[in-house]
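Q: Hi! First time doing this. I have a protein sequence and I read that you can turn it into a structure. Is that right? Here it is:
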Amino acid sequence: MLINSALYDDGRVVAEPGLDGVAEALASRAGFAWIALRDPSDDELTRLQRELNLPPLAVEDARKGHQRPKVEEYGDLLFAAMHLLEAGADGELRVGEVHVFVGPRFVVSVRHRSDQGFLGVRGRAEREPHLLRLGPGFVFYALMDAVVDRYFPLIDEVEAELERLEASMFQAGQDRQAIVQQLFGLKQRLATLRHAVTPLLEVTSKLHGGRVPGVCMAMQDYFRDVYDHLLRIQASIDAARETIIAATQVNLTLVTIDESLVTKRLAAWAAIFAASTALAGIWGMNFEKMPELKWAFGYPMALGAIAVVSGALYWRFRRLGWL
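A: Yes, that's right. Below is the predicted 3D structure, encoded as structure tokens:
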């Protein structure tokens, strides 16, 4: 579906050509075209390919989706794939994609499986015509910058959830199994973030310094800024992963300690009942020559002895911290 199309000249919108009039508009005017599509049909991509002479392999990638973040060169044209991440109601990260074709006189963005639009990016660019005059390279930077900036709230949310779990781990009565499950859920979200950030970090490093594609030549400082943002996100992901691993180990250690305390309690009570059972067994043999058998106070004495021994054991185990 076509979201927007515009022809810019000297940083201003001069026409809205649509899919079938892009080539004619570019031939009749200076400037460049910016076209945005969302979940396009095969027919729309075919028409756009014909109008702008897009590379067939890149169009096939944009048609199928499910691409790894990348930037590919086809002569003087760039094809970029980036992941769009958004948190679902269940806390899981939903993964969409945006594919961007960047030529000397056009930019085409193709969005798949995502509700995150770029109208705000277009509005910001149109409010800064001096930057739009830099051409398609600026639009490519603006789209990439918007994608990367949307990763920051996601990593902040993971870090906040991790801090909450760390604070609750040492509270009494916590469900250790539930905490471990939540930690692994956070680890999965970080893995999704890493799959979006790490490949993009690698390709962004090729857009500034050294051999740079022609359409990005004037925007090297801007792409360096995006690269710095990705480095910060990557560092935050690595730090959060290490914290999750440490928190999981601590939580498992606490489980072991809890189990040890339960074992001690059971052992202490077993020892108390074992002593009582032993004494009751001795006096329960009923041999005729037992001194206390016919004594009037024999039975109370036996119960008292059992109580004294059990109480002494209980006191001792309390002092040891087993009960």
